[in-house]
Structures are given as structure tokens and as C-alpha cells.
Amino acid sequence: MERLIERVIAVSRWALVPFYLGLVVALGTLFVAFLRELWSAVSNATSYSEHQAIVKVLSMVDLTLMAGLVVVVLFSGYENLVSRLDQAGERTWPEWMTQVDFGGLKKKLFAAMAAISGVTMLKALMKLEDTVSESQLFWLVVINLVFLAGYLLMALADWFAARAKQMAD
């Protein structure tokens, strides 16, 4: 009976596949949004003020960071939870793609979220005179600081764990 339960649990990891396929579709929607931003930036480039151009570029950077985050979660999540990716004959794959463990994924996620939060805050700063209130800006700064503090605490915890392991060896 125990073996059957373990087998069912092991096979259940394949229930995650639709989620990862959904992330592929989400990546496509981010690509469409990026193309829309790019087209808008190029077609209206002569009429934009400096601030408007910067906000457009920041929007494209934001979408690019988010797409990168989706790719990291997609590959490392599938590799760690569902099945190993077969790299045979795939020399163009980045080296990290099959080497990101949960610790690395955690760091990449926090770093990406902090970067996305920072870009969002920069966009808000650029729109401060037009549409962003001081209260909204305050909360964006607080959220960004929370992400950064979480990232620092996670790095500190990893440092202590590595040091403890070093002392044990």
C-alpha cells in the first residue's frame, strides 16, 4: 500500500505540466504586449517628450524582466519538479537552464521581483507630476524596500547555512 501511495505521489508531479504550458502562453502574451509598446514608442517617437520616451522604455524593460522571470520559473520549475530536460544536441541552451536548484530559483525570483518593483517605481517617479500621487509613490517605495529586505535576509540565511556546512565539514 505504501509503495502505491508513493507511486501516485510521484506520478502526480505531471499535473504541473498544464501550469508550465500556461506559462508558455503567458510568455506569448507578454511578447504581444512588448510588441505593442515597441510599436507605440517607434510610431510616436517624434511626438514624445523626454519623460514620455523614458516611461515607454521603462515599460519595455519591465515587460522584458517579467518575461525573463517567466522563463526562469518555467525551466527551473519543470526541471526540478516534473522531469529533467534533455539537452542532447541543444548547444544553444544557456548553461544555467538545467542547473538552477530551488535556492538559485529563490534568489532569481527575489532579484527579478526587486528589479521589476524598482522599474515600476522609476515609472511612477517619471509620472509623478501627471498621474501618481505621493501616497502611491510612498507605497511603491515601501514595497521595493520589502523586496530588497527579503532578498538580503534570504542571502544572509544562505550565507549562514553555507558557513554552518563549512564548519561541519
From TrEMBL:
GO annotation, cellular component aspect: plasma membrane
Transmembrane segments: 12-34, 54-75, 109-126, 138-161
Organism: Neoroseomonas soli
Signal peptide: none
Protein name stated in the entry: UPF0114 protein GXW76_06595
Keywords: Cell membrane, Membrane, Transmembrane, Transmembrane helix
Source species taxonomy: Bacteria, Pseudomonadati, Pseudomonadota, Alphaproteobacteria, Acetobacterales
Tagged with keyword Ligase: no
Classification via InterPro entries: UPF0114, UPF0114_bac
